[in-house]
Amino acid sequence: xxxxxxxxxxxxxxxxxxxxxxxxxxxxxxxxxxxxxxxxxxxxxxxxxxxxxxxxxxxxxxxxxxxxxxxxxxxxxxxxxxxxxxxxxxxxxxxxxxxxxxxxxxxxxxxxxxxxxxxxxxxxxxxxxxxxxxxxxxxxxxxxxxxxxxxxxxxxxxxxxxxxxxxxxxxxxxxxxxxxxxxxxxxxxxxxxxxxxxxxxxxxxxxxxxxxxxxxxxxxxxxxxxxxxxxxxxxxxxxxxxxxxxxxxxxxxxxxxxxxxxxxxxxxxxxxxxxxxxxxxxxxxxxxxxxxxxxxxxxx
Length: 300
Known about the structure:
The chain has 300 residues and is α+β, with helices and mostly antiparallel strands.
């Protein structure tokens, strides 16, 4: 298999071993947990990949790093046992996790390439990504599928590349970091995570009956302009990542007032590009939604 570097093509072969399900190391509660009304929004029903790159570590010479990761993952799933379950969809498309203990998908692989040979290919948008995370049939779905898909690729230099596909309805960036921190602690020999995971998603459930205290304009239905995407065309919408290098931000900053933040600049750039591409009229109403971490916002 091959990937393209910015200067010249890099040709390398990836050999994958049999995919397996890694189960929790000990028995876990068999129960069904509801996801919150924030978690199961349509806009979050996708998988998001993370890539971690590790250089050769001489102190690990006597250990098999893949075996260490696999065993530590199994121990981590005892504490994060909902991640070893399967997402189900109930009445009204309500999502829940059935804590079955079926495990997460784990794939071991090896590549005949060194870390240095990748060059800039290991920076976003990762042209070699398809070699580093196996496209398991149905892995793009979230219902009745493993909640984690993991590939660990050994490199010829002794380094490792770890790629994980996370189900966004189950965890956001902060939750993913906490899971990874616990996994790392278990790999270093810990028996308990330094921070115990807490579910508590019921506090983010809508009240029944509803008690609306403010207008939520983000959920109001707005008639789209005649030349925008129609509702029936939404099946063709793709999730796409755009990566801004420091040089890109610097170039955009030259076009705006000095007091603009990086967030202001990127948001304005997307707003401008989208409205220009859709050729909207000045009187057309359009909206842009931005996901915000609410953990530190006590007033929300």
